[in-house]
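In response to a reviewer's request, we include the raw inputs and outputs for one of the modeled complexes. The four entities were modeled together in a single run.
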Amino acid sequence: MAMVLSEEAGMLKDAAKGFLADSAPVSQLRKLRDTESADGFDRDTWKAMAEMGWTSVLVPEAHGGVEMGHVAAGVIAEEMGRTLTASPFLSTAVMGATALTRFGSEAQKGEWLPRIAGGKAITALAVDEGRKHAPAHVETRAERSGNGFKLNGKKSFVADGHIADMLIVSARTAGGDAEEDGVSLFLVPQDAAGVTIERASMVDSRNSARVILDNVELNADAVLGDVDNGYKPLEAVLDAGRAGLSAEMSGSAQECLEQTVEYLKERKQFGEVIGTYQGLQHRAAHLYSEIELGKSIVLKTLQTLDLAPDHAAMMVSAAKSKMGSVAQLAAQEAIQMHGGIGMTDEYDIGFFIKRVRVAAALFGDTNYHTDKFARLRKY
Amino acid sequence: MAMVLSEEAGMLKDAAKGFLADSAPVSQLRKLRDTESADGFDRDTWKAMAEMGWTSVLVPEAHGGVEMGHVAAGVIAEEMGRTLTASPFLSTAVMGATALTRFGSEAQKGEWLPRIAGGKAITALAVDEGRKHAPAHVETRAERSGNGFKLNGKKSFVADGHIADMLIVSARTAGGDAEEDGVSLFLVPQDAAGVTIERASMVDSRNSARVILDNVELNADAVLGDVDNGYKPLEAVLDAGRAGLSAEMSGSAQECLEQTVEYLKERKQFGEVIGTYQGLQHRAAHLYSEIELGKSIVLKTLQTLDLAPDHAAMMVSAAKSKMGSVAQLAAQEAIQMHGGIGMTDEYDIGFFIKRVRVAAALFGDTNYHTDKFARLRKY
Amino acid sequence: MSDLETFRAETRAWLEENCPPEMRKPMTGEGDACWGGRNWTFQSEAQKVWLERMAAKGWTVPEWPVEYGGGGLSKEEAKVLRDEMKAIKARSPLMSFGIWMLGPALLKFGNEEQKKEHLPKIARGEIRWAQGYSEPNAGSDLASLMTKCEDQDDHYLINGQKVWTSYADEADWIFALVRTDFDAPKHEGISFVLVDMDQPGVTTKPIKLISGKSPFCETFFDDARCEKYNLVGEKNKGWTIAKYLLTHEREMIGGTGTGAMRPMGDIAVQQLGLNDAGQLCDPVLRTDVARAEIDGLAFMATMERVTDEAKSGQGVGANSSMLKYYGTELNKRRFELMMDSSGHDGLEWDQENDVARHWLRTKANSIEGGTSEVQLNIISKRILNLPTA
Amino acid sequence: MSDLETFRAETRAWLEENCPPEMRKPMTGEGDACWGGRNWTFQSEAQKVWLERMAAKGWTVPEWPVEYGGGGLSKEEAKVLRDEMKAIKARSPLMSFGIWMLGPALLKFGNEEQKKEHLPKIARGEIRWAQGYSEPNAGSDLASLMTKCEDQDDHYLINGQKVWTSYADEADWIFALVRTDFDAPKHEGISFVLVDMDQPGVTTKPIKLISGKSPFCETFFDDARCEKYNLVGEKNKGWTIAKYLLTHEREMIGGTGTGAMRPMGDIAVQQLGLNDAGQLCDPVLRTDVARAEIDGLAFMATMERVTDEAKSGQGVGANSSMLKYYGTELNKRRFELMMDSSGHDGLEWDQENDVARHWLRTKANSIEGGTSEVQLNIISKRILNLPTA
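The model returned the following structure tokens for the whole complex.
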């Protein structure tokens, strides 16, 4: 497959860029933060995104979606990375839609996909329990109870958890604490009895929650996919999210570089524009090269998710690892090259280093995916 | 202890620098290589070194030495690193002397130390068997036989092996292939029946040998230290050598930087001396900083070997790891900044990248010591 | 018993008797420190007593001459005092830019009246000083500063703006670099003045950083008045004093690198645990942590060596740039690894140990006090003697 | 069946019939290749036959026009030919600087007579060409070259020295950049000439590298003669041709990065083995190998993307500099890791797989064809549009 955007994707990119620059620039995130918005995202912007079809980008046409695929979803995520737009796009339109489309029963699809496509429902994946991402490490228990299951446990670092209408929760139905076998996935309405969701205040001012499941009773039809065999679907959903995060970080990294290069062209010191200093030029050129590599592996990964989703794991880990480190380098270099002003809250560049840190950590950080890549490569 | 050279050590440094620049510059190594010298080192230079007391720097006064300690030995090694002088100084005056002084019986000391001090005997440590340094991995067997032992096995990467009068050989007297317990050390004369020593042709044109031990019969008094408990002494001898190699690499790194900085001041491109380019300036300044760090940890390590040799392991691994990577960076940057001419055999800088590679690998490479450091730090 | 041993015994006894128990507990942060000044409110009686007792002996500034409020101690005695204070974990009685920066400058460049006027008040914590150097358009290129200082016959009139003035909103006086000659080459039109901030012409505004609240302020001069006797050194020769203080500051910042902090490996083990082979659970992080710890050891050894070389007269002066460069870059690396090992918890904004704010704050280490790029320029020019274009 | 499918079927059949079995085995190194030229000795009958058959069809240079000895194939047909040759592992029938460098230059800048004279001989492997660009004092700053070319009315007289002329000791002709005007600005006094090396005025001397024997030579011109019709393009306008060829060369070198090589991880596992947890025995190396492999994947994806973007007209021209920079630096890293995983065996000078010599040779990757620093300058100026001092 040619490593260029299709005309359709290119048009989507232009549209997304224009919309986000106008309607959801960095100042929107700043405002959400400074006003301590309870929602943590802008519902009008979200509505507009739904109207443009962004929420249905991965939903099959049969369920009201436009089914454009992961490359298209990545294009949107990348542009959001440029403006740091806070929205449940990845958790809902990418991960929620992937989970239901690929692994949902007809009934589950019928219930959720049209709502996701229409921007009427927000979903969130509740997977992590410990300090670091370890999706096979599941202590949350789902015990058979009557006609269904009873869930008990705690989840943390649940992106968009407190605004979600429905949580996709990994819980153990069999096996030991760190085994892949015996993990099952459950669709848990946020208003189910026994569910407590508490928002956490994060470095990036984006939405993240802790979820407590206290004897949450669910029917058997709340299971997504097969009981005990939820790990593979979980990984597939995570991979869709990881690829989306990588695309988002790619946008953030490009934005950091571009803003920094503009600054280098303006800022004078010692009577010269600092962009004339070869020391800074070479670092900017190196960063450009790294970002180009990141962009390429992200596109390759998104294409692989569209073409051969069951064989994408290695590419996804490579992309998340590479783009995570590149984006962090970009944000760090951006601050250093901006100097003192880059350290002030008043200037936007600090929002990038914060978001990129969180995005790099979500669903497995750079080290996690470097290690996973090595494991998949059998060394 | 103050982190400066004593007056005595400073004088030794000046003397060594002067002698080596005059009598054993890089051109000596080049000549040894080009003439395919069978010895691989210059015996007259070695004799002169002995006369200056270098071979007795770690030998106790009681055995004819000057007993100046590891800092002094390091000063000599560092200066040798500047001129890439090929000599069995580390294998004999540092490692051989350490082995016998610290672990030899009175008889062994009496036999070997005066000869080492006088430059009359060369020793070599035969420890490695596999592709990578792994001193506990000993397959060479020493079986009890009559009044003594019978040795069978193969050793490789034995620095100065083919010019040694006596080999210090690690062999297994008990335990499994990778266990520390059950390793014993033996003093094996090079002319003992069953010993075959074959010189290997190395990247750095320095001496290295493969040793085959085929039913080598030794008396019980050939054991250095206690039977089965040779691993700790072995590590102590290795640490002395590793510290010496680190000091040597420090000298090589400094020389690479200095020659490169001189070149940057002379070479013109685009009408300007290339040393005016900030891109190169910053890299040279960074390299300078790295080398300063390397020098410091090497000095600290040598001081620790003098003051508390039994507590030096962690510092030694830190120094070997750090200096190994710094010296390789220095050699790589030297070639890159010299450009095409640095790639030619005619120019000396290529000898540095070759020697530094070997020195960094000998007795555990940078990765080995980074890992060992982590293990000693219990993580 | 040698004089020094006698001094040590007496000091130990005096400290034992006079240092209040509350002042022997570690500070939890800069907020616990005593900064003094006109508007200072002591956080405890112990803090007040400790400052008064130490100031009375001149031991807030042990090596300054007695006539300026100092202790008149020799270098060796001052080290004994530091050691003995450390032994009982005594807090510093007074934190002060007056002590760290202005004092040394006045001792070297001030006239007798200025020393008599200002040094004792610094020593006693009566006046709190701020430092007015950087300006919005004069960062690395400090000498391009534009704050105007005009000669009004009987006084100076100051107009302009400073940034990065630490704690200026709580300070009483500010020492500042100002331009007294706009026609001269940029380094030759700068003067060093002392300005009372208790006047309508001086206002301040705190700067919020990406890490949150900060001690930094913007400081504005609108027709601010400065008495003529408050010019330090010669008019238009202020750059000499600035250079002296910049080197002084660089040494202080470089030295704070990674000193007494808890080793990263221990933190990582505590946070992530070991696997069955006894190795840190995150194998990639393990590699990075080991490399950073080794660099940390090498850096500490280098600080020692540079100090010892300086003592024995062998030092390279510009090595303070190397320490500043490497120390701050290493500290940034260290906090990246801390964030890595803190995992999700570390990404919360207001968690207990606040690692995220510290991490973000370290990003300024390589900017403040001369950027890493400036330090590399200095190494290149002064140590390696590479030519300028 | 489309035309292209027909072409594919015919090509497959022709290759099957005409490519000797010996020419379907992988080459073990450059030494196995066929370079052609006046003094060429074929290493086998198969090598000779293969060249003759391919040359007869014009397929040594498939896309060149038929009248100059080429195959006259379209881009698409040429790709089919490459694919089909690859499918049967057919060797390239002819390696040649004439094909890679001079040919494209002549097709673009040469006059009709020059094309007719030189291109067919290149296509048939009759004349072997060397490239004369660099000089001892003109490395990165190629345009400062000083080899003098004087107009002697009926011919040119050339004096000077070139370095890094690959295989010049085996070449028949050399295409060279020479200075025809010493008074003009440096880029405007350069010409591009073709010189027969079979004359006393041209001598060569091989250069030994740190990695050992090399194809590089020094080439000396002492009153060497060049016919006037062998000036390509306009006099003093040779820099245009040089720039064209430099970009061309950069694309070739950048593209050879880490393509079809065996993955480092597999090599490391084979050499060092796995521990009980199934991980590479050297845990530190494992981290570095994984990072380098990921960068390798990303680099290959980038080569693909840059190619596809160029095809679709979206490309950034100067991206060849980025590929050259990153590809060569990555290749150096790769060989450092190969050395790490080869351990002691890899340190032997004449061992079987000769990894040490390859490792040392990679150090030139970031120097030849424009240094990494030059590529970074190009990225900085042409892509990022950063200003020049």
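As requested, we also summarize the result in words. The beta strands of chain C are 129-132, 148-151, 155-166, 173-179, 190-196, 202-206, 216-227, 231-232. Residues 255-259 of chain C have pLDDT under 50 and may be disordered.
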